[in-house]
Specification:
Length: 500
């Protein structure tokens, strides 16, 4: 009688078996990136040698009691039609051969009936194996496939046209050098990265700290404090390197910390005083006041000499001649922020600005995740706590907490995040589409994943899709009601002043 080969694993007191052809491999439980609002049985996603692997708890999927992972826990990686899913099991059992005559095929066996297609006896008939239906693992709520792998978030021209204001604005990344606030136009910035110790090189200007090897070549690193006539930077966990694209090559500027991402009306940027402009040799592009702070806008193209840019250019040429430069293809820029241990990215096009969390006015009778409204330079903006929206454990606000202001359908909305980590550029080839098994809720706003390493990934969000349509309507009502109250308060104050 013809037999078939099976792989057996255990969950609790039961032993399950699956055809060996459905199993690609079996691995230890990897580090997982949790996905907010995914079905409870989805433990997260992992980077399996460059492939995105959604991982489910088979205990939870079968409606069984959860159990902590231990040294025997394994992930069985199943494959079907080019899709992969990992299932966490308590322990592996054995590889076996089951005779067709010893298999009783039937449906609806117990609470887990949807996933069982029969029972098999082995050996003397005392050992029973529950035959697991692997196909059911690939039947998830969201059956729609992404149009292409690595699809980037796109924003229709109509959304841009929906903005009320036709004024010309500049988006700036501001940073601290000592007690002063400086900024560079975001169009000149490639990315903002963590500081790593550069390799020192001889015969360079005193403000050049050295060079670092990046994925796309050699990056000269300039201490902007020294360049601006200050004491050298004291390196700590806040130190960042702002990578700028000059006309000849990329250059990294060491700054004390990233302050804010700002959007300012260009007409509000004033030319620097003539004396200051002469002293700095064109390095200062303008001055603008934002929230009572004077921000000095630097001309990144004139901050370093040709000698410094040549460090990067020469290295790039040498690599090209050696044919070792990797073709990165199209890149897209994201603001990366943290919620707990997980990293999230939002396309820079969606971001209006990033600020420290101002005073929030609570609004009664709203959804639990609506923290209230803030007055941002005279504009009332509703604020959403992303932790609460994603059902994550609460966390107190601290000095790292930021409010990310995004353009949602032509309206500004603030999102509270634990910390803003960086502004990064990532090639499309490193971005995978969102697995359908994440479910409708999560797949609505998780549009892709950036594979940073074997351990870490960035979940790419569309902030415009974080809220359902009815929630957006409620938010718009909060906005309008707050404007009316604000206007009434101003009117009362004016009447009071006239009476006095």
């Amino acid at each position: 009688m013809k037999g078939g080969k099976y792989i057996a694993f255990e969950i609790g007191q039961e032993t399950y078996a699956v055809p060996v052809g459905t199993v690609r491999e079996i691995v230890r439980v990897p580090e997982l990136t949790r996905v907010p609002l995914a079905p409870l049985y989805v433990e997260g996603v992992a980077n399996l040698r460059g492939e995105i692997l959604p991982v489910v708890s088979l205990r939870k999927r079968l409606g069984l009691e959860a159990k902590p992972l231990d040294e025997l826990s394994r992930v069985v990686v199943f494959e079907k039609d080019g899709e992969i899913v990992g299932a966490i099991v308590d322990r592996m059992a054995e590889a076996i051969v089951l005779e067709e005559g010893n298999i009783e095929r039937r449906e609806g066996i117990g609470a887990e009936g949807d996933f069982l297609e029969g029972v098999a006896k082995a050996g003397d008939g005392k050992k029973l194996y529950l035959l697991f239906n692997v196909d059911k693992l690939f039947e998830w709520e969201n059956q729609e496939k992404q149009e292409r792998k690595g699809k980037m978030l796109s924003f229709e021209a109509g959304e841009e046209a929906g903005r009320k204001e036709a004024v010309t604005e500049s988006q700036l990344v501001s940073f601290k050098l000592g007690n002063s606030v400086y900024a560079i136009d975001i169009r000149d910035i490639q990315e903002v990265i963590r500081y790593t110790q550069p390799t020192e090189i001889p015969n360079v200007p005193f403000y050049v700290r050295g060079i670092i090897q990046r994925r796309d070549g050699i990056l000269p690193v300039v201490d902007l404090r020294l360049k601006m006539g200050m004491e050298a930077s004291a390196i700590d966990e806040f130190t960042k390197v702002v990578v700028v694209e000059t006309s000849r090559a990329r250059v990294g500027f060491v700054v004390d910390c990233i302050h804010k991402v700002l959007r300012v009306v260009e007409s509000e940027i004033k030319s620097p005083p003539e004396l200051l402009e002469q002293q700095l040799g064109g390095e200062l592009k303008g001055i603008v006041e934002v929230d009572g702070e004077m921000v000095l806008l630097l001309n990144s193209q004139k901050l370093v000499s040709e000698e410094v840019t040549l460090l990067g250019e020469e290295a790039g040429r040498s690599e090209r001649e050696g044919e070792v430069v990797e073709t990165r293809g199209k890149e897209n820029q994201y603001v990366v922020f943290a919620l707990g241990d997980e990293l999230f990215g939002v396309p820079i096009e969606q971001i209006q600005e990033i600020n420290r969390l101002p005073e929030v006015t609570r609004v009664p009778h709203t959804a639990s995740f609506v923290e209230g409204v803030v007055n941002l330079r005279g504009e009332v903006i509703p604020v959403i706590d992303l932790r609460k929206r994603f059902g994550l454990p609460p966390r107190g606000y601290d000095e790292f907490t930021r409010i990310v202001v995004a353009d949602i359908g032509g309206q500004k909305t603030g999102f509270i995040v634990d910390a803003v980590k960086e502004v990064g550029k990532y090639p499309e080839k490193d971005i995978a589409s969102s697995p359908g098994i994440l479910g409708n809720k999560a797949s609505r706003f998780v549009k892709g994943l950036v594979k940073l390493s074997e351990q870490k990934m960035i979940l790419l969000l569309d902030l415009g899709a974080v809220l359902a349509e009815e929630e957006k309507e409620e938010l718009e009502k909060v906005r309008k009601d707050s404007k009316v109250k604000d206007g009434g308060k101003e009117g009362s104050q004016k009447k009071l002043r006239r009476a006095e």
